[in-house]
Structures are given as C-alpha cells and as structure tokens.
Amino acid sequence: MGKLTIANLKKTLYYLRRNGLQNTWNAARERLSATEPYSFRPLSEEEKKTLREQARECIRNWSEAGKEVPSFSILVPAYRTNPTFLKDLVVSVQEQAYPLWELLLLDASGDESVYAALKDICKETHLPMFSERLVGDEDDAVNVGSIRYVRLAKNDGISENTNAGIPYARGRYVGLLDHDDVLTPDALLEMAKAIRGEKETLEAPLLVYSDEDKWDGAGQYYERNRKEDFNFDLLLSNNYICHFLVMERELFCELRLRKEFDGAQDYDLVLRAVAEMMVRGLSPEQAICHVPKVLYHWRCHGGSTAENPQSKLYAYEAGKRALQDFADGQGWNAKAVDLKHVGFYRLNYVGDESSVLGNRHDLGAVGGKLISQRVLVGGRMARDGSIYYEGLKEGFSGYLHRGVLTQDAEAVDLRCICVAKEFWPLFEKVVGVPYVTRRLFIQDEKKNQKSFEVEIFDAETLPKDAEVKKLSLLFCKALREQGKRIMWDPEFMVQS
What we know:
Number of domains: 3
CATH topology of the largest domain: Spore Coat Polysaccharide Biosynthesis Protein SpsA, Chain A
CATH architecture of the largest domain: Alpha-Beta Complex
Structural class: alpha/beta
CATH superfamily of the largest domain: Spore Coat Polysaccharide Biosynthesis Protein SpsA, Chain A
C-alpha cells in the first residue's frame, strides 16, 4: 500500500486543484492499492571490505591490461547545509569501495557554517584534513579519497555554483551529488565497472546512470526507481535518468549547466548531452550506460522535491522549457506540454502525415494502446511479445506513471499503429496486406475533450486468422533494421 503521510495528502490536494475530482480519485485508488514491496539493506562492514578488495582487483586488472583506470570528481554545491546532512554525505563518499575519487564542496554560503561543519566532520570521522583550492593549481592527478573545499565568492544559483567546480575537477568523469543526499558504498565501483564494461562501439560510455530510491534520513528506504536502459522518448517525457549520474569530464566541461534552467539543470544537461552525441554521429543508446542497481539515496524532507513537489514548482516549469529547447534544437514542429502529474511532459507534434509523427525523421511508426473491459491488453511489446503494463486499469498511470508516458518500444501492436508513409510498402511486404488507414480521435484526458486526430492502420483489413502478435513483431523488427525508432504513445487508444 502507498505511504499515507502529510506530504502525500498535500500532493493529493495539489493534484485535485490541477486535475479535478475524477482524475484525483483514480490516482488515489491507484496509489493506495500499490503493493510492490521494497526494502534496502545497508551493507555490513564485512561486505564493504569485500567490495574494497574487488575494487583493488579491478584497478590492478585494468592497469595490467593497459586500460585507462576511471577516476571521479564529485561536485557538490553547498549553501548553509544542515550539518547532519553534510556529515551523511561526506561519510557516504568516504566509504566508497572504489578509491579513485575526489569530493569538491563548492560553498556559496557566504559565512563559515559549512566550513566549520566540515572541519568538525573530518575531525570526528578521522578523515584527512582538506584544503581550500585555488584556481591555477597545477596538480591534475586525482588523489585517493581527497576532500577539497572551494569557497565561492557569491551565491549564483545551483548551476553556476556547480560550474565553479569545473576548474578544479581532475577526474576522468564528473559526478553530481546534491548536498542532502548520499551514495551507497558501491556507487563508484559500479560506475567504474560500467565504464570499463561491455560497450563495443565506444572506448567508454559518455554518460552512466543508476537506479535510486528515496530515504527518510533514518532507516526507511522506499519508492525505488527501477529505470530502463536508455530510452529516448521516455527521456522526452521526464528526467527518468536523474541520480546517480556521471559524465565524461570533457563533455561536461563543454556543456556546463545553464543557469536559466535552474531547478531542472540536470534534465537540461542530459538532453543537451544526447543532442551532442547525435551531432557527433553517436547513438545515445550506445554512448549511455545504465547500472540497474540502487546507488543513490534521495533524502526526503519538507523542503526537498522528492518529498514535496510543490516546494520547487519552478523546477518543473524549467524542465518543460528544457524539453522545448531540445525539440526546437532538433528542428521538430512540436510543443512541450504538462501532463497530469507534475514533472511529466509530452511533446505534441504537428505535421502533414500525422500529429504523432510530425517531422520526426527518426521515427518509423507510433503505436497506441488497446483497451478491453477497461484494462490495457495490448500496446508496447518486448521482443518476446510480452506486453508492457498489461492489466493496467483505465485511468491508472502505472509504475512511476510510465503507463501514460511516451517511450521507445521494441514493437507495438498493429491494431493501433501509425506508420510513416515511406514504410507503407515495407508494411505490405511483411504483413501481407496494403496499408489502409482509418481515422482515430484522441481525447485529452486532463481536459476531457478531443485533442487531435490521427490516421492509423485499419486492422479490419487483416485476415480473420492473422497472427497479430507475430506480424507486429516481424514488422517492427523490419523497421528497426531500417534504423528507425518506434514510439509508444498511450494517449491514443483503441477498444479491443
């Protein structure tokens, strides 16, 4: 069952004002019926020791093989940070099994509070004493487990305060950590293993991210975010990548964070990183790596976005602007709009062929969902034909709202598909019938009115004995072999 807390009640009231009674009733029913169990067990001292031995072995093996050994600069902008939060953060970094890291604390407090707290933490935990760093320091090697303090001249916002650490960062990769969150002891080891892992088309990935969960600051861990491997259109729905993220230093230094997107600076950074990869002729699916383990605990308290989305509503507006900026940069005729849940968006496309394809030349087809007896029975499919979100009730949004978000798909159901005109001959060759269309009206659930209409394949032209799932998988495989993405858009729906 979902957690019943004051914060959740506040979220419900805000949702009611945004979306009305029926949508709020559906959301409350879904949240209270959630049954997915989750628990996180902190590592024992013996397990931490084993991890440290594993890290030393990895470093030795990479060095002997002549491979570059990854190193990390972790940037933490601080502003009058609660000393308890600061201690938790510092200790979590100090406990990293992987030793090649430096922690840069970028202090814009304008007073001695963070400096004094850090001195006490180092003394209490027997950490090596840190030193203040100056621009122009010629030492470009990452020391083992060094904590470096940078006093900023002014508080210029989270993006510029973070960027102020760029001249000091010496690691091969830059990691971003909020001043009230913590890492798991294996975080950097898992990142290093992913960097030196199985990517065949690149020497190393340009960006690596992990799963995360929420943490109450004591012993309760909840709401694990089980993320997908890189999914282009899911990223265009929300910043599902979020924490923990490390980026190749040269790319981070080139892009930097942008002050005008404060609050959603991480989302803007990832979107621009994806755009830069495509400019370089790289596939983001190959240049971005996902570690499917919880490596980051997002602390929840009254002022945090994790616990109280209304505390930073400006961040969600900044996220929408970042998405619009990305779409404009791609030359797409599209408009970023809010969905019912804060921090989630969609791009509405306009084009000659279809309002769901627009001028997205990377798309070969868009599929919708099939509903029968008010539950989802078809739509996005995996390569084995299994159906994502199968059984999701109409009006429900699914795990972390993914059941209502646009996303890349291996395959979609032919009974609710819109295919780019250039691939109609391929459709006929694979499926065995001409691509004949019918009109489908799309209803905006938030406003309870017709939003737009699309031309989809008329499934009535299929033979009565057609193996729809098999044909769907075959055609979508043929599209992917043409180098095209397939998008699943749950906003258009067919009754099965």
